Amino acid sequence: MEPHSDKSLLRELPKVDQILLHRDMTRLLQTTPRSVVVESIRNSTALIRKAILEGQIFEPGTVHDRVLQKAVALIKEKTRPNLRRVINASGVVLHTNLGRALMSESARDTVTAVSSSFCNLEINLESGKRGSRYEPVEELLTRLTGAEAALVVNNNAAAVLLALGTMAKGKEVIVSRGQLVEIGGSFRIPEVMEQSGATLVEVGATNKTHPGDYQNGVSENTALLLHVHTSNYRIVGFTRETTVEELVQIGQATNIPVMSDLGSGFLVDLAKYGLPKEPSVQETVAAGADIVTFSGDKLLGGPQAGIIVGKRHWVEKMKKNPLTRAVRINKFTVAALEATLREYLDEENVLTNIPTLRMLTESQEKIRVRAKELEFKVRSLVQAKVSLEVIKGYSQVGGGSMPTAEMPTYLLALLPELMTVDELAVKLRLAEPAVVARVRDGKYQIDLRTVQPEEIDMLAEILAYVINYGEVIRS
Ligand SMILES: *Cc1c(COP(=O)(O)O)cnc(C)c1O
After folding, report:
1. Are strands 187-188 and 182-184 parallel, antiparallel or unpaired?
2. Which atom of ligand 1 is nearest to the CA of 230?
3. Model confidence pLDDT, tens digit, residues 302-318
4. Which residue, by CA, sits nearest to atom 6 of ligand 1?
5. Where are the alpha helices (DSSP H) in 305-455?
6. Are 170 and 198 in contact (CB under 8 A)?
7. Structural domains of the chain, with CATH
8. 159 and 307 Cβ atoms separated by less than 8 Å
9. pTM of the predicted model as reported, rounded to 2 decimal places
10. How confident is the model at residue 4 (pLDDT cuts 50, 70, 90)?
11. Atom 13 in ligand 1: which residue has the minimum CA distance?
């Protein structure tokens, strides 16, 4: 039967004031600007009018409630923040798209403290004179890395740009062809070099660069020997990389400084926990690099920042570069980074206090127990048919770090009967909080390594809700 358009239903369309008086609206008005509420009711009325005219609504007596419901939905949509909480069930510990490192409890506390009260960001409380915003982190960084001096900027891309611009503007920088990396977001070594005003001199081949290649590349215009840690890819097979130590030897013989961009610099050796052996920040400093740069929010597990450590005269020169002011860190970064670095002074607890390190070093048994707990809780909440199974798999470090590392993990694999696995993935991404996991081998796979212990109950409820009702309707 053709749906008929019943114009008489238009008479049922309520007035804005009538909807405004409804209990649901008076409640929403306590937290929502009146203008948003009124606009949503008008938009809702227009949509329902259109539906009536198109013959999509033909039950008398339902119009008022439809306008009300649609208005509530529109208000919720409008007032929901765009940046939302996500449960990371992807198994990628440092997921750039999910905001990289989680902060330690101490870092969260200090950020809250400096958000709600003034702080001594640039005042020395003893002398009452102007102080440096970098001081609290400089001391910790030199102590932890063994470097003479330190400086922190907005991110590591800025750190590399600042270092190159300060040490090699108008001069040549020698880099191995095997290390001309692209980090993503169009951060490529050749392009950053150009921006900094330095000239790139490529030496060696993609798979092999010998110390002699650097030596042959040196001219009277050479200002820097640059080593870039190939953090997000590996060249395997017939390879030869010149180490930072070897570069330092050439640098000393030719009086040219050496810089190492570590990318994902770390302070704790993770090889003991089955991760690949890579040089730490301390080792790179000890190898004699004049300048070392790394990110604050990769393996260090702190806030977004670009950390520069090394020889004092170079760091002092960078501090005087006007670019430093343009890429300076804010008080939240200072607060979170100081707290993060302090955690490293407590060697016994650092692996549990820094969420990134905890996720990377957690025992398989603990992950398995969490997977079983989630399975049990989902089973007790679902009524609709679903197959649930705890299986083995692998997690990734992510954030362009240790690309070949395979960390054995446990996953909860789901196969719903009332919808496809892809539909389930979409519905879970739209839930509150959103859930991001992997679809693999025809199953929805939740990696428990990156799910926080305190998120298990919430995740079980969201999963059960979506499986039972097809979507998450939450008030
Ligand atoms: C990640 C990375 C960068 C960029 O660091 P951000 O903190 O993301 O700006 C630079 N160099 C290397 C080698 C990296 O791995």
Report:
1. antiparallel
2. 13
3. 999 999 999 999 999 99
4. 156
5. 312-320, 322-326, 331-343, 350-353, 355-361, 364-381, 421-429
6. yes
7. 7-79 (no CATH), 86-96+360-469 (3.90.1150.110), 136-330 (3.40.640.10)
8. yes
9. 0.91
10. low
11. 263
